[in-house]
Design brief:
Helix content: 10-25%
Radius of gyration: 15 Å
Mean pLDDT: 90
Low-confidence stretches: none
Distance between the termini: 35 Å
Number of helices: 3
Strand content: 35-45%
Number of domains: 1
Length: about 140
Amino acid sequence: MSQIEVNQTNGLPAIGTVEDPSFIWKDRTAYLAYQIAPVDGSGCALLRFRNVIEASIIPLNTEGLFKNTSGPYVPEFPIKPWEVNEIRNDSKTVYWKALNARRWQISFEDWTVDIISEQLELLTIDKNTQFPEEILHANIEKLD
């Protein structure tokens, strides 16, 4: 197997550190809303993950990414906190290669999201929304 690569996904607003994100799963699509950091203008962003193979929420906070060395939630590889990290050439993306699997891990203050899917896209940014669940509720009818 090739060496595992971890890269930050470019083109997305920086993750804010105050509000928890919101996450929903509909059919084979997952949606993740998060607060945008003030450096990128605040508000909230809504991401869509298409053709989801696996999604999990791990109780691993940003501090635990570096200090957790034992137990069931030891990080498999180093990821940057407050970033959308894409992992390549790990055992899961290699296993699901026929489905064009890509893997993202996104850490927040209190937990980390791990998603294996075919595609990630930025659906919308709302500069007037303060809480991630608000952008999900405002767009729920439009989500496919």
